[in-house]
């Protein structure tokens, strides 16, 4: 039972990332009808927003500390971050320690701007083009963004730790009545799952209960009719593209302590997230979220040694096998709508 609970937790962790990226993909496809293969790159850029803020926070000034000496007896040179000089050692160190959560505030305007530039500068020219053209141009854009990140940040992963307050692990075993230390799970992974839940709930509430969201949903169902009512639906869809970019970026920001950012992490998540979208049903927001968590849990169970000893390598292909089975039995996905990508 403890092994099953641990794999469910691991699955929810993976599923949170899949669901957030797939949610943004589906928002873009549902509003603009564009298959955006650059969406994984937005996840990567969000992660590097956290890296960038951490580097800004740790810009230091070299000073001589007379109270400390090297082995030759000379005063030592020490690097003191400017934040500690300006705000004091304690508060400055706290800002550096909490750089990942604070990067959310930094990433939101950055991702909204990048989303607006992408949509206005490139994507809008492919609204009425075949989906194959959209895939090719956005995939090319993803490669360009990936190489830009590689040029400025290098090819190696960059460790970006979580705040020290969440550096430990939670003892689920003791909390659930099992033997202590049988189910240990890192605090930050639990934080990420809670963050993903809030993000998903926020997007659904925004679309469901705000006037802006209601107009967007109406535009997703019948764009021409909404336009005839005198509503600039294109402008609202552009805003939704920016929101989708922000969702992907914030997912990347909070994922940095779990997986050290690297230039190819966007591609690693993109293919899996696109499979999640197809399994959930193209254009279906609830389907994308459901499929994200479902496939995350199944992938987690497939990674168990007991399973891999029976079917070696099953953890690498389980998502694709499940996708094949679901699409053979339900060609539109779990919650797909009739007529979406069926022309």
Automatic annotation (TrEMBL):
<feature type="transmembrane region" description="Helical">
    <location>
        <begin position="237"/>
        <end position="258"/>
    </location>
</feature>
<feature type="transmembrane region" description="Helical">
    <location>
        <begin position="310"/>
        <end position="329"/>
    </location>
</feature>
<keyword id="KW-0812">Transmembrane</keyword>
<keyword id="KW-1003">Cell membrane</keyword>
<keyword id="KW-0813">Transport</keyword>
<keyword id="KW-0472">Membrane</keyword>
<dbReference type="InterPro" id="IPR052157">
    <property type="entry name" value="BCAA_transport_permease"/>
</dbReference>
<keyword id="KW-0029">Amino-acid transport</keyword>
<protein>
    <submittedName>
        <fullName>Branched-chain amino acid ABC transporter permease</fullName>
    </submittedName>
</protein>
<feature type="transmembrane region" description="Helical">
    <location>
        <begin position="270"/>
        <end position="298"/>
    </location>
</feature>
<feature type="transmembrane region" description="Helical">
    <location>
        <begin position="91"/>
        <end position="114"/>
    </location>
</feature>
<dbReference type="Pfam" id="PF02653">
    <property type="entry name" value="BPD_transp_2"/>
</dbReference>
<keyword id="KW-1133">Transmembrane helix</keyword>
<comment type="similarity">
    <text>Belongs to the binding-protein-dependent transport system permease family. LivHM subfamily.</text>
</comment>
<dbReference type="InterPro" id="IPR001851">
    <property type="entry name" value="ABC_transp_permease"/>
</dbReference>
<feature type="transmembrane region" description="Helical">
    <location>
        <begin position="42"/>
        <end position="60"/>
    </location>
</feature>
<feature type="transmembrane region" description="Helical">
    <location>
        <begin position="15"/>
        <end position="35"/>
    </location>
</feature>
<feature type="transmembrane region" description="Helical">
    <location>
        <begin position="190"/>
        <end position="216"/>
    </location>
</feature>
């Amino acid at each position: 039972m403890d092994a099953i609970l641990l794999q469910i937790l691991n699955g929810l962790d993976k599923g949170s990332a899949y669901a957030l990226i797939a949610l943004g993909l589906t928002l873009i496809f549902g509003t603009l009808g564009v298959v955006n293969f650059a969406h994984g790159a937005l996840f990567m850029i969000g992660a590097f927003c956290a890296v960038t803020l951490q580097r800004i926070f740790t810009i230091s000034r070299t000073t001589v500390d007379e109270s400390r000496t090297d082995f030759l007896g000379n005063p030592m040179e020490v690097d003191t971050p400017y934040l500690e000089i300006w705000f004091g050692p304690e508060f400055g160190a706290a800002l550096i320690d909490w750089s990942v959560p604070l990067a959310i505030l930094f990433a939101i305007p950055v991702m909204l701007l990048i989303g607006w530039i992408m949509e206005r500068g490139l994507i809008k020219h492919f609204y009425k083009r075949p989906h194959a053209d959209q895939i090719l141009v956005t995939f090319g854009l993803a490669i360009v963004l990936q190489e830009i990140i590689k040029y400025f940040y290098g090819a190696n992963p960059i460790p970006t730790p979580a705040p020290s307050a969440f550096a430990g692990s939670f003892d689920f075993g003791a909390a659930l009545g099992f033997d202590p230390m049988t189910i240990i799970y890192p605090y930050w992974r639990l934080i990420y799952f809670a963050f993903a839940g809030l993000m998903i709930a926020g997007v659904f509430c925004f679309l469901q209960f705000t006037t802006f969201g209601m107009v967007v949903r109406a535009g997703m169902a019948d764009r021409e009719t909404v336009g005839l009512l005198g509503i600039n639906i294109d402008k609202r869809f552009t805003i939704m593209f920016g929101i989708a970019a922000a969702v992907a970026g914030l997912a990347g920001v909070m994922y940095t302590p779990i997986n050290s950012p690297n230039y190819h992490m966007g591609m690693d998540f993109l293919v899996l997230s696109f499979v999640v979208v197809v399994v959930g049903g193209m254009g279906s927001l609830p389907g994308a979220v459901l499929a994200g968590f479902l496939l995350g849990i199944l992938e987690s169970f497939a990674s168990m040694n007991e399973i891999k000893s029976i079917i070696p390598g099953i953890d690498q292909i389980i998502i694709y096998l499940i996708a094949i089975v679901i699409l053979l039995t339900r060609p539109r996905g779990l919650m797909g709508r009739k007529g979406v990508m069926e022309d």
